[in-house]
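[Discussion] Sanity-checking designs against the backbone

I'm trying to build intuition for which residues belong where. Below is a structure token string of 112 positions. I'd appreciate it if someone posts a full sequence so I can compare it with mine line by line.
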């Protein structure tokens, strides 16, 4: 399972970052990042690096955030991050900066 999975809010984007599994069951060929925005269907991205940037609109909720590594043997265990709420665009920079860094990290990357 990937470790240190973090979803970090940066104004109009969410930065996802993680470390590769310590003991993968082979060479990692991709990471599968899944999330939901507002009440939409889940979105899935196959990523070849250990980071991803998601542009988001103000007043958006990003939730059900998860990541897992894939090798030729198949998928690894799922790691989850906490839900994020992107503030409304009407907030002032002072209000936004008082809440920074708004860094959410899963505690010990819970299994599904």
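Best answer:
Here's mine. Compare freely.
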């Amino acid at each position: 399972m990937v470790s240190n999975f973090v979803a970090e809010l940066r104004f109009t984007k969410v930065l996802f970052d993680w470390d590769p599994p310590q003991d993968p069951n082979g060479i990692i060929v991709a990471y599968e990042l899944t999330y939901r925005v507002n009440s939409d269907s889940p979105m899935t991205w196959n990523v070849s690096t250990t980071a991803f940037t998601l542009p988001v609109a103000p007043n958006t909720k990003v939730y059900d955030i998860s990541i897992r590594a894939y090798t030729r043997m198949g998928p690894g265990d799922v790691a989850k991050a906490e839900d994020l709420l992107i503030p409304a665009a009407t907030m002032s920079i002072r209000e936004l900066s008082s809440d920074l860094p708004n860094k959410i990290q899963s505690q010990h990357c819970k299994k599904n």
